[in-house]
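Figure-free illustration: sequence to structure, shown twice.
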Amino acid sequence: MKLLFPLLTLGVTAALFLAQAADPAVKPLRVLVVAGGCCHEYDKQTLALKEGIEARLNAIVDVAYNPDKTTKATFEIYKAKDWAKDFDVIVHDECSADVTDPAYVNAILDAHKAGKPAVNLHCAMHSYRWGNFREPVQAGGDNARWYEFLGLQSTAHGPKEPISITYTDKTHPITQGLEDWKTINEELYNNIQILGGKPLASGVQIVPPKAKKGETLPPDAKPTEATAVVAWTNEFGPNKTKTFSTTIGHNTETVADARYLDLVTRGILWVTGHINENGKAEPGYGK
């Protein structure tokens, strides 16, 4: 486990100096990216996120990275009292599907319930789940709280094929001015139910026909089309804590894509309250 607090590199120092020179009254946003677990190149993706966010925002990005590549990856920072107090926003980029200790998960969620904003990426939607999670969870249920925090329940994904992304709410500050785009091979996460989330974008994936085990494809087999919400906002808990989530981001090439990083950084600005109704960063927060 590695918790990297502000890296004293020339790049970060220069970015901080330029931001402060532009407006000394505006402090950089403190962003914590929590990443690790199964199935992804988190060592590379955290670097892409850090560089991409700091290039776009007046921000300092710290990374809590666990090299554990299993679905049981946990993070030491969550075990600390007031673990989120030093940060303005938490970016959840975990893939911890088999971490099922309610006390551990509640310690994460309590910070957000108290008002700490969050941005949730890709496999964060398939983490911290237990019980009969493949069926719609019941509001208020023991296994519903993480999904209620996200604002949408997803349980599985399709094949790795390109996804055509359409911004369905083009008036929201996060999406204003962003153009629809098509990814490289990515995973389209399903939507079991929406739990308060407000959709911003949908994805369409053409799924090639696939034979069942032991069978052969009929000659007239045709591809099918799958559609799902791929980006949305939510308000969680009594303080209506703002969250932004996107299920896109399986491949490192996608995470490093300027269109993806634009979307994520807009989400950071929105959840922290530093973006205007026209999708522009408030003075001192953009670059």
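We now fold a second protein in the same way, so the two outputs can be compared directly.
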Amino acid sequence: MSEAAGRPAAPAHPTAVAADDPSGLLLSLEPLLREWLPRQRWFAGKGRPVTGFTLDSVTPLLPGAALLHLLVRAHQPPADDEGPGDRYQLLIGTAGLLPQQLAPATIGAITRGPLAGRTAYEALQDPRQASVLLERLRIPGALGALRFHRGPHGQVTRGLVPRPLQAEQSNSSVVYGDRLIAKFFRRVVAGVNPDLELPLALAREGCDRVPAPVAWFETRTGDSGDTEETTTLGVLQPFLKGAADGWDLALKHLTNEEDFTYEARQLGRATAEVHTALARALPTVTYSRAQTEQLAGTMIRRLETTAQQVPALLPHVPALRTAFAALHDLAADGRTRQAQRIHGDLHLGQCLREASGAWRLIDFEGEPSRPLAERRMPHPPHRDIAGMLRSFDYAARSARPWNAAWSQACRAAYCAGYAEVSGTDPRTDPVLLRAYETDKAVYEALYEARHRPDWLPVPMAALARLAEEVPR
């Protein structure tokens, strides 16, 4: 036996592991991901154990395994016993020795498999690795399973210094040189994400109330032709440097006991401009009697299901059901309503006011917990309006003592501003507005009960008020 034959085989080169041996890569990373993934703010399967992982794709963004783009499915009982599992997008770096400044980004030390002896970490926290992503967005084309695209709006400048945002959200964002911001979708589903689709449509209409996408990237699955499906993975847009977050601005006015009605009115005008442009850019539909009745039925079922999970809601169910029953009954009159693409999750935190005073709307993804097909469905604009009215209430309730007059004044100013642009005051359809506001508050009650119990009194106070608005 030769000396070479007597030695153990050398470990596979990291390049081979990443590109040609996904099972080996999974062997190295799976124990770490079981611990790390459920701790992330954007992980959707909290409270259920992860039973395994499947790699949908592995794309090295740098030679070897220094920077890996992964689409990985997490399997959890009982929700996906028969399904493929939720799919997550990860950008993972590996290094023999991790610099001290990247210690908070550590996923874990790899102890087995081909990458044993290396440390895995969240690469978006590493400026060097985040710069690689920007460079890929600067150059259109294909790389492994990924496709990079450039739009006609704006430029991608080389060498912009990356700065990851630390705010809790359902995705991850990186600011580049205070000029651009990349949103990296975490839980991804097949299809075009509305946060790309709608801003592109608005840009074609010349609506500047929403930052136009500069670049984006995606993956495609299936065969070429009609069966191929696109999945949006990330979007690069202008960063509105110095713009004030609408939520923070509202709280500042509340704290200083300052009037906010001018800003609310201007925000109403901005919302109407976006709705009007979306109605021009994308198809609209007329809600038939059957569709309106179906909408009311869905809201009733959501109320009853939520009440079983939030017992504090149970005493209000009979009165709240009247909000949806009134919508159902109104459909019998033969009155139709126009439905269109909307923002889908509109609140003060999705709005930015620039130094010029102009309002911009951002984050068109919709409510991430809802299926993509549902988020892309047309709705009457009242759904967005109800979301903003609820946001004024949330802001007012955060003040001590609760400033009910502030909320009422902002709500009225917002609707008035909306009417100035659209020609229709949303308050002229009180049945539809009440139904959407009630449905939104029910959604909030379930979210707060699960994630922020201390905030549950906010939607519960609104639901108590809405329950009292029983038609006489």
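Summary for the second example: The longest strand covers residues 86-95.
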